Amino acid sequence: MRGLVFKRSALFIAAAGVGYLLQLGKIPIPYMLGGIIAMAAAKAFVASDLFWPRSWRMLALCVAGYGIGRNFTMDTWARLLDQTVGVFAATFISLALSVLIAIWTHRHTFANLLSCVMGILPGGLTQMMLMSEEDTRSDANVVVVAQTLRMFGVVMFVPFLVVHMLGAEVLPAEEVAKTAAAGGLSWLWLFPVCGLGSWAALRLHVPTATLIGPIIAAAAFSCAAGTLQTVPVFLMSIAQINIGLYMGAMLDKDKLLRTKSLLPYVLGGTAVMIGSSVLVAQVLAKHYQFSLVAAFLGMAPGGIAEMCLAGMSMGEDVSMILTYQIVRVMILNLTVPYAIKWYFDKDYQG
Predict the structure, then answer these.
(1) Is residue 350, in this structure, part of any structural domain at all?
(2) Residue 339 belongs to a domain with what CATH number?
(3) pLDDT, tens digit, for every residue of 97-120?
(4) Is residue 165 part of a domain?
(5) pTM of the entire structure?
(6) Total tally of structural domains belonging to the chain
(7) 198: Cβ–Cβ under 8 A, 6 or more apart, which residues?
(8) Pairwise CA distance, residues 282 & 252, whole Å
(9) What is the pLDDT of residues 18-45, one digit of tens each?
């Protein structure tokens, strides 16, 4: 027990140290990236069986969900209605491109089409992993590796892209917090809002309930009761580290070695998705008159928490990023499973 506590404490300190260095380098979501890098390095060079408690990650997602959802206001809702065509068109393009990449990967690797589709769809990591475990015709190992690599590719590369190629500027964390804390209801509302949101989302079997629930609850509370203050910098940094450490623990060297022939196709497909996101973001930014960086983070095939936290660190319109990301995730999780079951019917042999 003492050994486990020591390892986790050392990992947390290492993640905080790497995150601090990345923050000095003005990299978005520095502490999340610090957690990923620290855990990945530890698993590769120290002990491959390291893991991070799921319950800690769930609590961290609640904090992140509150921080994201509080940006949603009645004005955001009005803009969403004005941009309905853009939101759904962007979602359709993202999903259609994913299917094309899955077909390309299937034709050039050993993986069957069902596994490739489950492995490349953006924003569906949890849902697709569960489906692959339940459907014996798919290769769960392929799905896990492809989804994990896609997520890591986006989370690790996108922050550098928006800074060095799109000209984004990372604001000091204190400045972001100071601006967000000007007026509004106390951040202590985090606890009842997140508790209620998580409870309701879990009861309704919403995917990634401890993130989506607090986002929706904080957004609804913000619209009904007024602006909510952001959480303190140190608490958000701790949440980022926990999310990053959990993500880093998902890397499995043995699984990567067993599916090494997939690597160039998954990473190449991820690069294509990121590149197409930039192109679509340029159209959206020009048509709807908002920041190219915000449009790109809304389109990027990463997770809601990661892209919204990146936008938060750069002072971008988080509510807009949230709108595009959450619509895609909800459409994916509510419709794609049924589409997969319809297309890959009982006669599909894999």
Answers:
(1) no
(2) 1.20.1530
(3) 989 999 999 898 888 888 888 888
(4) yes
(5) 0.75
(6) 1
(7) 58, 62, 209, 210, 213, 214
(8) 36
(9) 988 988 877 777 888 888 888 888 887 8
